[in-house]
Amino acid sequence: xxxxxxxxxxxxxxxxxxxxxxxxxxxxxxxxxxxxxxxxxxxxxxxxxxxxxxxxxxxxxxxxxxxxxxxxxxxxxxxxxxxxxxxxxxxxxxxxxxxxxxxxxxxxxxxxxxxxxxxxxxxxxxxxxxxxxxxxxxxxxxxxxxxxxxxxxxxxxxxxxxxxxxxxxxxxxxxxxxxxxxxxxxxxxxxxxxxxxxxxxxxxxxxxxxxxxxxxxxxxxxxxxxxxxxxxxxxxxxxxxxxxxxxxxxxxxxxxxxxxxxxxxxxxxxxxxxxxxxxx
Length: 280
Hints:
By secondary structure, the chain is α/β, with parallel strands linked by helices. Helix 7 packs antiparallel against helix 8. It is elongated and about 65 Å long. 26% of the residues lie in helices and 35% in strands. The strands form three sheets. Strands 1, 2, 3, 4, 5 and 11 form a six-stranded mixed β-sheet that branches. A five-stranded mixed β-sheet has the order 8-7-9-6-10. It contains eight helices and 15 strands. The protein has helices at residues 14-22, 34-42, 64-70, 112-117, 128-138, 149-155, 205-215, 248-259, and strands spanning 3-8, 26-31, 48-55, 59-60, 74-82, 86-89, 100-104, 121-125, 143-147, 158-161, 171-178, 191-199, 220-227, 235-242, 261-271. It folds into three domains: 3-83 and 171-178, Periplasmic binding protein-like II (D-Maltodextrin-Binding Protein, domain 2); 86-161, Periplasmic binding protein-like II (D-Maltodextrin-Binding Protein, domain 2, 3-Layer(aba) Sandwich), CATH 3.40.190; 191-269, ACT domain (Alpha-Beta Plaits, 2-Layer Sandwich). Keywords: Amino-acid biosynthesis, Aromatic amino acid biosynthesis, Lyase, Phenylalanine biosynthesis. Residues 4-179 form the Prephenate dehydratase domain. Pfam families: PDT. Its EC number is 4.2.1.51. Pathway: Amino-acid biosynthesis; L-phenylalanine biosynthesis; phenylpyruvate from prephenate: step 1/1.
């Protein structure tokens, strides 16, 4: 299978790297925002979308969990990208020349120690690859970008310092979105089921809803809450469990969850990426 895969950012972004590593037969399609990325899949300009949802250092990517349920799309896969942060400068520049480093708000905390130790001021950019492109265009040796080796290759920059991230196993998790769901069992490994739900307004509803997973031996690997509708009254939960909806224990747990919720929707069923089980 081939086609186009949309990602947020410019060519050279970590989303681009995720597309190259996970879906090498697809042509990457850069998009300005996550909304634009999801829209490209919805309207058929792209067959798949690569969406970053969390980083092992920074945490959850803002707004994504609220965007995905409203996107009309389905999660059909996941991939983990080892995020190496590099200080990229114009050809001929040295580390000692750099006074400012430009990067996305998510990436700046990931290399805060290096920036502080070298008296480099971090400056927020809308996208790491865009920062690389703009540093290349400016030609100023005092300005650098925080980006991938892929971005250095694309924009003709030198790697002034490699792998400067604070944590040696800095990793970003991406999910692959598609217009149509695929609940089939794929591969020989574990399957993951993701869903969103809102509990009924009864005492201990969340506690009771979660009890079905414990009693049926279903491993819940993620449970996150966020507000919906701009009020404090409506809380939606995003969850992931190991297993397939047709597994007997998963089916029983979901039936019990459904009893205590007023909204439950499967977001996706997909093979667990091997790196999910690594100690990142």
